[in-house]
Amino acid sequence: MADTIRGTVTEAGNAVTEGATKLGNKVAEKAEEAKDWVSQKAHQVGNRADEAAQKTENAAEAAKQDAKAKDGSCGCS
């Protein structure tokens, strides 16, 4: 315990500084977690877009093959 007003003010300042540092660290930690979450979700969205594009390409190719088979121009005769 401080014996003087100056010591008391210094202790109070130190306590405020320590609290602000802890708060800043907590905010930075949560911001990092949020950044990681957003990055993960962005990758998931990209993967889903790639999968959808692949399915579309596969469906188009299947439709093309079906059309060739129906009109007899498969080139297999």
Structural shape: rod-shaped
* Number of DSSP helical runs: 1
Low-confidence stretches: none
Q: Specify the helix fraction band.
A: over 70%
* Computed CA radius of gyration, to the nearest angstrom: 32 Å
One letter per element, helices H and strands E, the order comes to H
What structural category arises from helix and sheet content? mainly alpha
Q: Sheet bearing the most strands, described?
A: none
What distance separates the N and C termini? 101 Å
Got a strand count?
A: 0
* Beta-strand percentage range: under 5%
If you average the pLDDT, what whole number results?
Answer: 91
What features would you describe in this structure?
With 77 residues, this protein is mainly alpha-helical. The protein is built from 1 helix and no strands. It is 87% helix and 0% strand. The mean pLDDT is 91.
